[in-house]
Amino acid sequence: MRRLLLALPFALLPLAVAHAHDDHDHDHDHAHGTLGAHEHGVAKLNAVLDGNVLELALDSPAMNLVGFEHAASSDADKAKVAAARQQLEQPLKLFAIAQAAGCKEEAQDLESPLFGNAPEAGGDAHQHADINARYQLTCATPGKLTQIDLGRLFKTFPQTQKINVQLIGPNGQKGVEATPAKAVVEF
């Protein structure tokens, strides 16, 4: 899994640079002009289908998934974090994938300062906690995997309004924007 996920940022770099350049033209006073811009309501999903292995990498501001970004101190906040983590631990329920593809989860990795397993943003007056979820699935019939329906993800986390998706598969590489009204993305 690490091999593909490590190569993915380099494969997507030309798209990210082009996107960042477009953003720069319209957003001159945004203090965080990095490629990994933190924007509430917007998440990123990288989906790579290589042979029979499907890798999914979801990066989202915590605000989209739990409704806040500060450390959970109240019981209510801790319950929201626990509920979001439990939902993220079930990728086959969040990402609707054709059953005919026969995909089974092989590995997952969830990281966030809210989960206590990722470094918090240092030196920033505005804490921007992200939640990163990585999944590796093995598909018995990958040719049947032609799309991913993100509708369940939007319903589960309604503060997520848009997902910028980068797809790499048998038909090449492309970037698409998914919304609750247009939640199906095709390889």
Automatic annotation (TrEMBL):
InterPro entries tied to this protein: ZrgA-like
Keywords: Signal
Signal peptide per UniProt: 1-20
Name of the protein this chain belongs to: DUF2796 domain-containing protein
Annotated source species: Pseudomonas soli
Lineage: Bacteria, Pseudomonadati, Pseudomonadota, Gammaproteobacteria, Pseudomonadales
